[in-house]
Sequence to fold (119 residues):
Amino acid sequence: MLPHKDLESFKKKLLITRSKLASDAEHLENDVHASNGSDGLSLNHLADAGSDTFEVDFSMEQLENKENLLYDIDQALQKIDDGKFGVCDTCSKKISKARLDAIPFASNCVSCQEESEVI
Fold:
């Protein structure tokens, strides 16, 4: 178990990151909705419409990534509240402080994460 001081530091870092991601996600979502509301084919050349479609798809992918990160951060915050923060979901060993410093929402230790990426 991490010291209380470290837990508070990680919680603060997670909340700041969550706030920024939520704001970014909201802006992306507004952009996607605004783009979907326009009739690109009647106003634009087909090449422009294709470019617009690509931009919307790209924004939607970015939005999905941000939503996934928000979920991971919410899970980490819940683990802090439950007293399970810093414990690997796979092997139940401690996640190194260095890993948590780099990725405070990490749910696996380095070994388990590497193993899951090999598959």
Summary: Helices lie at 4-37, 40-43, 46-82, 97-102, 110-118. The first helix runs from residue 4 to 37.
